[in-house]
Amino acid sequence: MRLLHHLFENNRAWAAEMTRQDPEFFRRTAGEQDPHYLWVGCSDSRVPANEIVGLPPGELLVHRNVANVVVHTDLNCLSVIQFAVEVLHIRHLIVCGHYGCGGVRAALRDDRLGLIDNWLRHVQDVRWKYREQLDALTSERERVDRLCELNVIEQVANVSQTTVVRDAWARGQELAVHGWIYDLREGMLRDLDICVSAAAEPPTFDEAAAVRADGARAGRRRADMVSDRAV
Ligand code: ZN
Q1: What predicted TM-score, i.e. pTM, was given to this entire model?
Q2: Can you state the angle between helices 116-129 and 102-109, rounded to 10 degrees?
Q3: Distance 66 CA to ligand 1 centre (A)
Q4: 138-173 burial string, b = 16+ CB within 10 Å, else e?
Q5: Does residue 44 carry a catalytic annotation?
Q6: Among 35, 141, 194, 200, which is disulfide-ready with 179 (CB 3.0 to 4.6 Å)?
Q7: CA gap 13, 3 in Å, rounded
Q8: Which residues are CB-neighbours of 91 under 8 A, at least 6 positions away?
Q9: What are phi and psi of 88, to 5 degrees?
Q10: Is residue 101 among the annotated active site residues?
């Protein structure tokens, strides 16, 4: 019995459609890959990196794990970052979280789910660091969404402190680390206004977190900027 037959059918249809649109596509991309971006995102099935940013195979290197966490001793993630920076020479490293993240929600609620609790302990460390800011919010949904944002900012800081990234900056390599968040409810990406392109001191990240501390104020400021441009 052939298992998951429909997935192979989907694959044949996809490959045929790609070839119809661009007969040389697979021949061209079967050679060396030359992506300009590394995406570090959540494993969530609703956050497909390439589709969200409209990039075809070959243009986006991707690493995903539960709650888009960059741990200083995670050889899996660090190896992807090292390969991306030192071998592929990517110019942009994007840490992208998403609102309504189940991993972040579990970390906030102290849910007991099994082995994964140990992984989510890293997100709970972020929760503890910003507990005053989180406790000031009235609804759980707001707290989850704020922790999703703060988690991205903290992971951007972690990426920026890896030896791979610090060494790249020390030798003058062009590399920017971005913090973005994806809204499942409307399919839109948002920039969290944190972009690090040189060895940064912790205050940089504290400032970014402080902006998230007053989402309404930040929202108004963005709205003012938009209306200024509209004028
Ligand atoms: Zn998630």
Answers
A1: 0.88
A2: 70
A3: 6
A4: eeeeebbbbbbbbbbbbbbbbbbbbebbeebbeeee
A5: yes
A6: 194
A7: 18
A8: 36, 37, 174, 175, 176
A9: -90, -15
A10: yes
Predicted confidence (pLDDT) per residue in 139-162, tens digit: 999 999 999 999 999 999 999 999
Among residues 77, 101, 127, 212, which one is catalytic?
101
Rounded to the nearest angstrom, the distance between the alpha carbon of 141 and the centre of ligand 1 is 14
Tell me, yes or no, if 77 is annotated catalytic.
no
Kindly give the distance from the C-alpha atom of residue 37 to the centroid of ligand 1, in angstroms, as a whole number: 20
| Residue whose entry in the numeric block shows the structure tokens 């399919």 | 187
Catalytic, out of 12, 27, 36, 46: 46
Q: Which residues contact 161 (CB under 8 A, 6 or more apart)?
A: 72
Q: Closest Cα to residue 38, out of 63, 58, 67?
A: 63
pLDDT, tens digit (0-9, with 9 covering 90-100), for 35-84: 999 999 999 999 999 999 999 999 999 999 999 999 999 999 999 999 99
pLDDT score recorded for residue 209: 78
Asked if 167 is an active-site residue, the reply is: no
- In 136-185, beta strands by DSSP E: 176-183
| Catalytic residue status for 42 | yes
| Residue pair 75/63 in contact by the 8 Å Cβ criterion | no
Residue 59 alpha carbon to ligand 1 centre in Å: 23
99 Cα to the center of ligand 1, angstroms: 8
